[in-house]
Amino acid sequence: MNNKAINGMSQRRWLIGGLAVAALAAVLWAAYRPRPLVVETATLAEGRFEQVIEEDGRLRLQQRYTVTAPTAAQLQRPTLKVGDAVQAGDVVAVLAPSAPSMIDARTRGVLQERVGTADASLAAAVANVKRLQAALAQATLEAERADQLAKDNFIAASARDQARLAREAAQQALRAGQAQQAAADHALGEARAALQRAQPGSGAVAQGLWSLTSPVTGRVLKLHKESAEPVAAGQPLLEIGDTGALEAVVDVLSGDAPRIPPGAVVQLATGRAQPPLAGTVARIEPQAFTKVSALGIEEQRVNVVVALDAKADDLQRLGDGFRVDARITLSAQDGALLVPSAALVRQGDGWQVFVVEGGKARTRTVTFKDRHADSAWVQDGLKAGDVVILYPGSAMTDGRPVRVRSAP
Questions:
Q1: Residues 292 and 394 in one domain
Q2: Structurally, how many domains does the chain consist of?
Q3: Which residues form the YknX-like C-terminal permuted SH3-like domain (predicted)?
Q4: Is the pTM of this model over 0.70?
Q5: Do residue 377 and residue 297 come from a single domain?
Q6: Does residue 233 share a domain with residue 286?
Q7: 11 within domain boundaries
Q8: With contact defined as beta carbons under 8 Å apart, do 241 and 222 qualify?
């Protein structure tokens, strides 16, 4: 074999070896090269930034009226039910005089004897009146006779005056006797009335009903008494209120209360598929109270009273004590560049995000004016249209190849 053939075979061997090394290098590069991370992204845009406080609350009536019993009486069975509409001046409860207490046989006997005593006293008073009438008649005759004798000068003027005074004394005595007779008569009537109530089967209550009226136009909220029964003076009978005049009470953390400006806009969600109610902060109560959270932590909270802007007709479907989810707006700014909070990564004392550029993740240091749980208001470091990576993990680094996850 000549030299030329040998050189040709050697070149072929080098060519095959080179190709094998290149193939091996290509395989190794394909096996160990960084693979793109699949990421979720969001495109930045300008919008409305709102700093809000979200808490739950409840609706309550602006005015609540409690109808009470003005005196001890027997309440007749109410005809109203909870939710019934009433007008101002409508009768809402009727009171009857209380039934007398039950009396045993001994007390009944005492009352019978008391009737006999009163009857005897009346008879004595009648007899005394007749005696006094006779004494007055005699005194009148004596006075007339004395007047005639005095005219004829048979007796002195002093004797005539004594006869007149005796007649006046007899008249006064008769009046006193008649008064005693009237008192004995009333005492007898009282004793007989007491005995009448003590008779078996005399359970009828004297008529003299007292009608209680509604002080306001509204609806019955609560019936404290649903049956006929005795009630004491001042005892609540029912509650009435206007369900078209509602307000909301939202309890917030005492640390958040100073951040709420007067007249702050509030949105109240009342339930699924229901339009929210608009309102404004009317006042913040000056006293805090302790409330235990769902996690068992004691919190100091303050009631924020919200005035509703809804019409009375729109509130008729709601009621006192209904739960609402309140969204209190502390501040708002239109045209703010918003970045989702899920894209923010803590870097020392500042913040950074990862932006997708040319299929790779690039680090951007950002500053923002304000932020909340959902998004941040960017001041520097980003612009509208930038694509940021959401939920970057520990594997995300500057320059790392990424692939945007396609929408399902």
A1: yes
A2: 3
A3: 337-404
A4: no
A5: yes
A6: no
A7: no
A8: no
Cα separation values, 360 from 35, 129, 226, 381, Å: 11, 127, 75, 18
Residue 321 lies in a domain: yes
The C-alpha atoms of residue 341 and residue 223 are separated, in whole angstroms, by: 51
Other C-beta atoms lying within 10 Å of the C-beta of residue 154? 10
Strands 218-223 and 85-86 turn out to be antiparallel
- Chain-centre distance for alpha carbon 406: 51
Q: Please write the tens of the pLDDT for every residue from 188-228.
A: 788 777 777 655 544 444 457 888 999 888 889 899 988 88
Query: Does residue 261 sit in helix, strand or coil?
Result: coil
Range of the domain at 216: 70-97+212-241
**CATH code at position 86:** 2.40.50.100
Answer yes or no: do 166 and 307 share one domain: no
Write the CATH number for 316: 2.40.30.170
> Which pLDDT does position 57 carry in this prediction?
92
Q: Are 277 and 375 members of one domain? A: yes
Q: Which two tokens stand for residue 136?
A: 């007055």
Same domain? For 304 and 385 the reply is yes
Beta-strand pair 91-96/210-213: antiparallel
Nearest to 398 by CA among 349, 354, 335: 354
Q: What token pair was written down for 374?
A: 């959902």
- 74 and 146 share one domain: no
Distances (CA, A) of 331 to 247, 261, 263, 282: 22, 9, 12, 17
d(C-alpha 248, C-alpha 264), whole Å:
14
pLDDT per residue over 339-386, tens digit each?
A: 888 888 888 888 888 888 888 888 888 988 888 788 888 888 888 888
In a domain, 1, yes or no: no
d(CA 175, CA 227): 53
Coil, strand or helix at 10: helix
The three-class DSSP label of residue 289 is strand
Backbone angles phi, psi at 187, to 5 degrees: -65, -40
Instruction: Give the separation between CA 267 and CA 330, rounded to whole angstroms.
Output: 12
- 180 with 235, same domain: the answer is no
Sheet with 229-231, side-by-side order of all strands: 210-213, 91-96, 73-75, 229-231
